[in-house]
Design a protein that fits this description.
Mean pLDDT is 83; it is low at 113-146. This protein has two domains: 3-106 and 150-247, no CATH class; 107-148, no CATH class. The chain has a four-stranded antiparallel sheet with strand order 3-2-11-10. Strands 1-12-9 form a three-stranded antiparallel sheet. A three-stranded antiparallel sheet has the order 5-4-6, with no helix packed on it. It is an alpha+beta fold and 249 residues long. The longest helix has 18 residues, at 150-167. The radius of gyration is 20 Å and the shape is globular. The chain has helices at residues 24-32, 36-45, 57-66, 70-83, 89-99, 150-167, 203-212, 221-224, and strands spanning 3-5, 12-18, 49-55, 112-116, 128-129, 142-145, 185-189, 195-199, 214-216, 229-231, 237-242, 245-247.
Length: 249
């Protein structure tokens, strides 16, 4: 599958390993496991926990241009990927939502809905409260609405912003000024040859497509310098995990 975000040493996330200093024997045991989920599980059984520390400076600033807390949100999503068998962006976002690191309060009661036209313009100028579930098949207008879980909506929105920004030109190793490099639309060629074209008037559809059709993947750990227990410059014990995003198909 094609890649949305290429792996590089710039896409490493650094986590503090908070526990006793692993002994040489423990490090050998850690390195002997085949999968990252086994490695991380082993450290947890030794009483270790993982705390996000930092990313590459430029990549971190680019993430904060999207949202000031995005590095922390993405660090949890990435950690869930390496610690579990889940790899889809949507599935990992559900895990982040369940953990709710930003402590977003859950809103109870009826959801809010906006009726917008096909170009994304608000038809009413205000949100409408509806007690029933809205249909999303109206034409030419479409009823876009949040799910009943506003906590999930919060994290999904942040992740969609990130995916869209990557697709439209932001790269981890170059300082991003907030300007998109693509102005007309985005063409996706699927493995079966089907061509999908999203104009920016279809921004919601494009964001949803990226969210539902991307996954995390594990690149070469030796090439990109991650996956080992090591010492940071300040003497603390760390582990690096790498972020790479591919299309599912």
């Amino acid at each position: 599958p094609s890649t949305l975000l290429n792996a590089s040493m710039k896409t490493n996330f650094i986590y503090s390993v908070l526990c006793h200093d692993p002994s040489p024997a423990e490090i050998d045991t850690f390195n002997g496991f085949r999968t990252f989920s086994e490695k991380l599980s082993y450290l947890e059984k030794q009483g270790c926990r993982f705390e996000f520390k930092k990313t590459d400076d430029i990549f971190g600033m680019n993430l904060r241009m999207i949202d000031s807390r995005l590095p922390e949100i993405m660090s949890l999503l990435l950690l869930r990927y390496y610690a579990t068998n889940e790899n889809t962006v949507s599935g990992l976002t559900k895990m982040v939502s369940a953990a709710n690191p930003e402590n977003i309060p859950k809103i109870t009661g009826n959801g809010r809905f906006r009726h917008i036209d096909a170009a994304g313009s608000d038809l009413t100028g205000r949100e409408r409260l509806r007690s029933e579930k809205a249909s999303v098949t109206a034409d030419p207008g479409t009823l876009y609405h949040t799910s009943e879980n506003n906590v999930f909506d919060f994290y999904a929105h942040k992740i969609k912003d990130f995916l869209t920004t990557i697709a439209l030109g932001m790269v981890p190793g170059t300082r991003w000024d907030g300007q998109f490099q693509v102005n007309g639309g985005y063409i996706i060629v699927k493995e079966d040859g089907e061509v999908l074209c999203y104009h920016f008037y279809n921004r919601n559809e494009f964001r949803d497509y990226l969210f539902e059709n991307t996954k995390l993947d594990t690149p070469s750990s030796s090439r990109h310098g991650f996956g080992m227990i090591e010492k940071d410059d300040d003497g603390s014990t760390i582990i690096k995990l790498n972020l790479q995003i591919r299309f599912i198909r």
